[in-house]
Amino acid sequence: MSRLDTIFEVIFLVGFVIGSVIRKVYTTPSRRSKVVKKRKSTLDIILVGLSGVGMAMPLVYLLTPWLDVADYPLPRWLSWIGTVVFAGAIVLLWRSHVDLGRNWSPTLRIRPEHTLITHGVYRYIRHPMYAAHLLWAIGQGLLLANWLAGWILFVTFVPFYFYRKPKEEQLMLDRFGDGYRQYMKRTGGMIPRIWK
Question: Would you give the end-to-end CA distance of the chain in angstroms?
């Protein structure tokens, strides 16, 4: 049986390629910039690596039969919901990168030209890329009917988020002080703040 035997596996693969291109386009200029302040720990490296495994395991699933033992039946209607969630993740990932521009970095770092972005999607939430990755993880689980390949990103992303978010917010507070405190009061983390 060929692995790309359902429309949902094809949808996932196409979305994976689009998401990878978005990330590559914005990562390359970021790595060339001078860094003023950087925070990186061993745990950070481990958690980033585990999230990388969570992103790569679906490719192993799609290209080999090695993970077939973890397949399970998934209703098509759930997979269609997964398609919408996954598409939302890709759009949010793209929009987040566009709004951040050269301010984005794959690691916790501040550059001399770093500015506080509060427009676009950042007008509503402080961590749209994390929100995009959470949506991606849920969409992946609903598109790939495999306990390992489908849900591994969710399992690896959650500890990464809870470890990284406070460190990132502290870095922003150190850099932008009261401006960032005020920004935190009027925006949500990954979900827009409905009440002020």
Answer: 54
**Token pair of 143 as six digits:** 């598109």
In terms of phi and psi (left: phi > 0; alpha: psi -120 to 50; beta: otherwise), the region of 130 is alpha
Contacts 24+ apart (CB under 8 A), 63-68: 63/3, 64/3, 65/3, 67/146, 67/148, 67/149, 68/146
Domains delineated in the chain: 7-186 (1.20.120.1630)
The beta-carbon contacts of 29-35 under 8 Å, at least 24 apart in sequence, are 29/102, 30/102, 30/104, 30/105, 30/106, 31/106, 33/102, 33/105, 33/111, 33/113, 34/111, 34/112, 35/109, 35/110, 35/111
pLDDT in tens, 61-85: 999 999 999 999 999 999 999 999 9
* Cα distance between residue 143 and residue 171, in whole Å: 35
35-65, pLDDT tens digit by residue?
555 567 788 888 888 888 888 899 999 999 9
Smallest Cα–Cα separation from 130: which of 171, 103, 167, 164?
A: 164
pTM: 0.90
